[in-house]
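Worked Example 4.2. Consider the chain below.
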Amino acid sequence: MSATPNQPSRLRKGSKLTILNAAEELFQRYGFKRVTVEEICAHARVSKMTFYKYFRNKEAVVIQILSAKSEAAYEEAQAIMASTRSFPEKVQLLVAQKHKNLAQMSEAFLQDYLQDEGAVQEYIQAVSARVTDLFIAFLKRSQERGELIVTVKPELFLAYLDKMTELARNQQLADLYPSYNEYLEVLNNIFYYGIVPRG
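Applying the procedure from the previous section yields the following structure tokens:
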């Protein structure tokens, strides 16, 4: 049977998705720093030529995987912030969302994600800036509605976020906890709720 004009496009999309799925599986298992393009190709059962049709390098694969996740998370956060729930309920949902997203990443993937210093880190910083802008706008609206004390300045929250990122990269502190996910969860809880036990 002869190929229709649409068939090559479908095949290309299928190959790209196969590469992304294979790469994510390896990244979750080993982290993305230790995985090579050759290993991704072998796992996806595609040639390196096919790989380079779609991706400039391994970092481009990591960024595309993160992009799909971050866009979905961003839209979900927007929906939470725009909902009619109370401010504390929104904060709880945002915390739960962040924990859920972190839980979807393995220890190996998370550590590489937070400690990368190349193109992946540049992408993460761009996403973080976008999320920070969304969060700051949310805080200002909450202050205008009287849901958050006006003495909490956006700049203070930005400073807290910077410190949280710094703490998240501290391996000595992370080693005090049974898992990296648990360590990040504690950091998030301190940021949103403080250190006083909640009743």
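The chain has two domains: 7-54, 62-193. The mean pLDDT is 84. Compare this with Example 4.1 before moving on.
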